[in-house]
Amino acid sequence: MKQYDVVVIGGGAGGLTVAAGTASLGAKVALVEKREDLGGDCLHFGCVPSKALIEAANEVYHARSVSTYGVHASGEVDLKAINARVKASIDHIQEHDDINRFKDMGIDVYIGGASFHTDHEIEIEGHENIYGKRIVISTGSRPNTPPIPGLEETGYITNETAFNLDTLPKKLVFIGGGPIGLELAQAYSRLGSEVTVLEAGPYLLGKEDRDIQKAAQDMLEKELNVITNARVSKTSRQNGQNYVHYSIDEEEYVLEADSIFLAVGRKPNTDTLKLENAGVSMDEKGHVQVDDTLRSNVPHIFAVGDVNGGLYFTHVAGYEGKTVVQNALYGLRRKVSYDHIPWNTYLTPEVFHFGLTQDEAQEKHGDIMIYKTELDQVDRFVADHATNGFIKIITDTKGKIISAHAIGKGAGDWMQTVILAVQKGMKIGDLSNMIYPYPNHTASIENASNQYWRAKLFNGKIQKISEKFIKLFR
Ligand SMILES: Cc1cc2nc3c(=O)[nH]c(=O)nc-3n(C[C@H](O)[C@H](O)[C@H](O)COP(=O)(O)OP(=O)(O)OC[C@H]3O[C@@H](n4cnc5c(N)ncnc54)[C@H](O)[C@@H]3O)c2cc1C
Ligand SMILES: NC(=O)c1ccc[n+]([C@@H]2O[C@H](COP(=O)([O-])OP(=O)(O)OC[C@H]3O[C@@H](n4cnc5c(N)ncnc54)[C@H](O)[C@@H]3O)[C@@H](O)[C@H]2O)c1
Fold first, then answer.
1. Which interval of the chain is the signal sequence (predicted)?
2. Do the Cβ atoms of 349 and 339 come closer than 8 Å?
């Protein structure tokens, strides 16, 4: 049986980071992936195709809306052409995740589904068993498909099938108002579908700051039909037409749907791993349970990425992967911390999230300060006619930045400055002291942080001391 220092199961964002990192430090590494190609969900069914589709949809939307300048666009959207463009983005990035690139690093790549034979021995479909001194599980997640009666008859779309649709559904109902549902709902709406989002909870984007949730919903409602507190009871099909049945406060409603899109969360890919043969514990949803060093209850078996049920993001899988490289190879106990993980939701306008929401910050820190700027106070957004949105920086009473949230055109890019500031231990006053080239979008951070000095100067002791000094100064 072939022996490895590290066996990595799953060739997505987390697994590729671990495989490349451990191999570059001299370990003998095996990477096992069940698909024919590497890259995982993010590349094939997630981040990359969704962002390519969103961009195409935004272009179509803008082309249609330039009639205000006397330019008129007409015609139907050719979804096959859009899918081809999406596929081109995947193919381009696939080169970076090419199997040969990993083989050139000295990694043995096995294509086939993996499962545990023992806590060190891995079975791989179509191959002989291999031995791993350390094993890293990075098998990701897949769409959760709740047992809603009727779905088998009506069929449904998920992110795994959405990027291969032949025609644009006329009436499209999304079940689930989280990031997957909303990013794609807005994209399909901008391409021309009539879209409804049914969300079980009281708010869209359940993890966001309350003000952001409200602003995002207000903006989305201008383009989509958004229904919250909706309990979907069943789907049905009559005379070739699909229907979604739901209730709000016991009141029953029905929606027509050409297609139904399920976006109701994720399920970890652990069911075929035979974790019981290795004695690895899972939580009640099937995630591999890990401690803050990303070790499972079996100390030489680690889990990174979606499969451990932490935060479901590519950059988190990468961050966890980097941590595991050191813990697995050198037996270190480096811990992960999720306190300052940012994420962006690629709606138009974009939503940026960094750290605690206002409610969470209040609960954890008690007294907090909020520095908020509406984007209509920032010249560049006014010039762009993109004044929808705001930025909100939350600090403690001494100006230490706790967290930041924003909704606005390109927020995911220009808010990065705040992340750097926090990592470098800067306070909100330091953000105000930077020079911002006029008129850029990041000036929204300048505007919000200027409020800190304004409050200090105009209401505080500094102004009184200054007044006295000016009177005495000759
Ligand atoms: C529509 C959508 C949009 C998203 N957009 C973003 C975004 O914009 N930004 C962001 O940060 N995140 C985004 N995400 C989340 C992101 O895709 C995931 O968090 C990320 O892919 C997780 O990486 P991973 O390595 O844990 O799993 P994956 O990338 O899914 O990799 C797991 C790999 O394991 C393989 N595998 C599974 N079981 C086995 C087995 N038994 N044997 C061998 N191989 C196996 C799978 O085939 C897969 O290749 C999005 C997700 C979706 C669905
Ligand atoms: N831009 C990004 O970074 C990005 C984009 C997409 C996805 N993701 C990642 O993928 C994860 C999964 O996204 P998601 O949107 O599938 O999951 P989610 O758990 O974030 O949201 C699912 C939503 O569906 C609702 N829901 C659940 N069951 C329902 C039902 N029966 N009827 C109606 N609504 C129901 C939930 O209340 C929730 O609001 C995200 O948490 C995020 O980490 C990231």
1. none
2. no
Query: Nearest ligand to the C-alpha of residue 142?
Result: 1
Residue found under tokens 């997630």: 46
- Among protein residues, the one whose CA lies closest to atom 7 of ligand 1: 47
pLDDT on residue 247: 98
pLDDT at 75: 78
pLDDT, tens digit, 9 for 90 and up, residues 93-119: 999 999 999 999 999 999 999 999 999
Q: Given the structure tokens 């095996």, which residue do they identify?
A: 30
- Does the interface predicted TM-score (ipTM) exceed 0.90? yes
Asked whether the beta carbons of 142 and 55 are under 8 A apart, the reply is: no
Cα 469 to ligand 1 centroid, rounded to whole Å:
62
b vs e for 202-222, b when ≥16 Cβ sit within 10 Å of the residue's Cβ? ebbbeebbebbbebbbebbee
Q: Which two tokens stand for residue 470?
A: 């000016």
Is pLDDT above 80 for 204? Answer: yes
Q: Which residue has the tokens 């039909």?
A: 225
Through-space distance between the first and last CA atoms of the chain, rounded to whole angstroms? 89
Q: Which ligand is nearest to the CA of 313?
A: 1
- For ligand 2, what atom is nearest to the CA of residue 182? 15
Q: Per-residue pLDDT for 71 more than 90?
A: no
- Which among 193, 190, 218 is positioned nearest to 204, based on CA atoms? 218
Q: Residue 65's pLDDT band (boundaries 50, 70, 90)?
A: confident
Cis peptide before 439 (omega within 30 of 0): yes
The binding-site residues of ligand 2, defined as CB within 6 angstroms of any ligand atom, are 146, 175-181, 183, 198-201, 206, 232, 263-266, 311-313, 343-346
Statement: residue 66 has pLDDT above 90: no
Ligand 2 pocket mutation pick from 198, 266, 351 by most atoms within 8 angstroms of CB:
266
